[in-house]
Amino acid sequence: MLRRNTVVAAATVLTALAVPLDSYAGEDPKGSGSADCGLYTCQVEVDVPGQLGGQAGGGDSTGGAAGGRSSGSGDDSNKNVCTYKLADPQPPTGSLDWKGHEPGDGAVYEQTCIWDPGGPGPEHSIVRMVWLAEPPEQATVAPAVLAQRAVDSMTLLGPDIASPRVAGRYTVGVPMWMWVNQSATTYGPNTASASAGGITVTATAKVSKIVWTMGDGASVTCNGPGTPYASSEGMAQSPTCGHVYSKISAGAQNGKFPVTATSTWAINWQGGGQAGQLTEVRQTNVQVAVGEVQVVR
């Protein structure tokens, strides 16, 4: 059984493990052992070079599913076991953690390796970032995790506000028509898929509602994109999404009401024998000037 003493147990251990996260960039982080693990919390026995004690201990490494350990000869001494966790968020473009690769080409993982030298001494551990072209072998990923990954790839945005316009001037008592432009990233539908470990999940997102806070204390919920105004409508109110200001914006900051449109994205996904729903929220802000009717005598 591996002992769980931390590396702070001895100053000599701290010195031995004080290495850069990318100090083993040229090594294969999965080593020579076979893997049987999940994408997010998986273990695989490896040969960790240098400061983790060199070769793994005796025994035939079979990488059995139970515990992610070598079945070996039953001797737990001199075992090097690494745990991989997908870095979330992934490092930005240009980060050294990508080892010269681009985001989307494989992934970066946080690797924690434990070496138990056997005997009464403490076990050693080291944490570093590693790039892998593929998830650890025989990886299994929860479909819900893949669904979120698919949604993240959609680049969902806040509402693309067509009205009210930033440059527009609006009048107290005159109905304001509010509507948004529709695209895959600002309104939907937007569909994307993500795959890993032989599982593919497809998600479809669409805005279910937009809540407008008007800056005068009022809030308007619209269950659609709104209706574009036409001059033939005159002073009629919008049939789907509108507001009437009862006071001017002169007293507001910058002389304009801060208007926020908050969209709720309803997302349905399925794959890997499962299905579910997700929700994402996005916002867009605009400032609106509201004045009074000027009467010329």
Average of pLDDT: 75
- Kindly identify the CATH topology of the largest domain: Immunoglobulin-like
What Rg do the Cα atoms give?
29 Å
Reported for the largest beta sheet, the result is: 6 strands, mixed
What separation lies between the terminal Cα atoms?
94 Å
What is the CATH class name of the largest domain?
Mainly Beta
What is the molecular shape?
elongated
The CATH fourth-level homologous superfamily of the largest domain = Immunoglobulins
- Per CATH, the architecture of the largest domain is Sandwich
Structural class: mainly beta
Question: What proportion strand?
Answer: 35-45%
Number of strands: 14
Proportion of residues in helical segments: under 10%
Uncertain segments: 1-79
Number of DSSP helical runs: 2
Name the helix and strand elements from N-terminus to C-terminus, one letter apiece: HEEEEHEEEEEEEEEE
How many individual domains? 2
Written overview of the protein:
The chain is mainly beta. It folds into 2 domains: 126 residues, no CATH class; 149 residues, Sandwich (Immunoglobulin-like). The protein is 6% helix and 35% strand. The strands form 4 sheets. Strands 6, 9, 10, 11, 13 and 14 form a 6-stranded mixed beta sheet that branches.
Brief summary:
The protein folds into 2 domains: 7-132, no CATH class; 143-291, Immunoglobulin-like. It is 6% helix and 35% strand. It has helices at residues 11-17, 143-152, and strands at residues 42-45, 79-86, 107-116, 124-132, 160-163, 169-171, 176-177, 179-181, 190-196, 199-213, 219-222, 242-243, 257-271, 274-291.
